[in-house]
Amino acid sequence: MMTTSTPINNPNYLNQNSESLSSETFNDLELMFYENIKPQLNQLSRNPDEETIAKILAYSRSL
Q: Can you say whether residue 6 is alpha, beta or left, with left for phi > 0 and alpha for psi between -120 and 50 degrees?
């Protein structure tokens, strides 16, 4: 019978423990990142006209 196990000195295991941040710090970092990219995201936001939506729906129904 073969026995398998993961050794404790596994580099992935060590990285998981060292990378654990407190939830407050992680959330603050996420918020700072979002606030930095928010203007660029707003520029990418598009609101299609009703006519455009109707054309897309008509095309999809024709398939």
A: beta
Q: Which tokens is 33 given? A: 């990142």
Spatial contact of 52 and 58, defined as CB atoms under 8 Å apart: no
Looking at the chain, the whole-number percentage of residues with pLDDT higher than 70 is 60
User: What number of other Cβ atoms are within 10 A of residue 55's Cβ?
Assistant: 12
Does the pTM surpass 0.85? The reply is: no
Query: Measuring CA to CA, which residue among 9, 51, 34 is closest to residue 59?
Result: 51
Instruction: Look up tokens 């019978």; give the residue.
Output: 1
